[in-house]
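To close the chapter, one final illustration. This time we ask the reader to focus less on the individual chains and more on the assembly as a whole: which components sit near each other, and how the overall shape emerges from the parts.
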Amino acid sequence: MVHYKLTYFASRGFAEASRQIFKLAGVEFEDIRIIHGDGTWDELKSKTPFGQIPVLSVDGFEIPQSSAILRYLARKYGFVGQTPEEEAWVDAIVDQFKDFIEAFRQYATANRLNKPAEEIDRVKTEIAIPARDAYFKILNTILERSKSGFLVGNNVTFADLVVVDNLVTLEKNGFLNKGEQPKLDALRQKIHNLPKLKEWIATRPDTQY
Amino acid sequence: MVHYKLTYFASRGFAEASRQIFKLAGVEFEDIRIIHGDGTWDELKSKTPFGQIPVLSVDGFEIPQSSAILRYLARKYGFVGQTPEEEAWVDAIVDQFKDFIEAFRQYATANRLNKPAEEIDRVKTEIAIPARDAYFKILNTILERSKSGFLVGNNVTFADLVVVDNLVTLEKNGFLNKGEQPKLDALRQKIHNLPKLKEWIATRPDTQY
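The assembled structure is written out below.
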């Protein structure tokens, strides 16, 4: 049996969708969660392929970069879509999510660096909120056209997992009012009600991010 | 025969690697190049799936997002690597490139917005240059271990195309002195000497980005 070890921080972030693929596929994995500030990461960083986590170890063979890990697992266990065209749209949605997160990260960074309140406010109003609105608009358009309720095709793909887990984070942090986004909330419910995910979500560590 | 139409601006940027896959595969495509500021893009923008280009049309079926397009074509024509593990590393390198470009874009944006010289300088020194150095270090480590001289496995993949085209841009814009980066320059030469690419590079429109 392949030994999988997924190393990330003690949060959902860029690893949760991969964890969920393991759960959906019913495949065992080591879920290594590094605590910020206890020194473990400082020691590990230089040993990772790109100086970053998540890293997936597959019998010792290491794969860096969250989307690469996710796509590797999704392809192996059948969560990439059913045709090359579906695969392309799954990829496109995940890339769009990453572009959105990049804009949002500027707001997180301004906060972390304790920038003046007006600078934080400016980044929020001029960058983060418009990026979120544009991203939500794209998701809503996709869901309006979806016959299955999934983002792509008739089955759950890793695009659904990535998007939904991030919706949880946006809601937990005051950037999503689910009453205002019924389609996005319906997607969240659909994904979180998949029996194997429902069980995982009820028992996993609850984290802010 | 499938009718491919690749729409992008009149630059290499996020479309060139896909153009190169068509050339390497010997597949015809419509190479639509939009001129900035002539009004075409303003009109087209709202008709694209995500309000962005590149967009690839495959017999009218549209795929947005540069990496999704690239992976779709690369998978179809055999430039994704030979095993699932090679595919994962190709993906990881392209994602790492995108993270690097995102950091670099902050510098481009500061320039475009005509920020004060000291602010531009700060972004260059504190963000762009360190991001480039970290990225070059990763590429050098990968190339040191490569037996073939390609980034992944024994054949050209879309990771080589993406990385090399960006090296051209970095050099053209004063961010790469090829004498200081012999391994990166050897990769560039190796890729640009692939006969079908050599021919394309000699005849394609020469652009700064």
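The helical segments of chain A are 16-25, 40-45, 66-77, 84-112, 117-145, 158-172, 182-192, 195-203. DSSP finds eight helices and four strands in chain A. With these observations in hand, you are ready for the problems at the end of the chapter.
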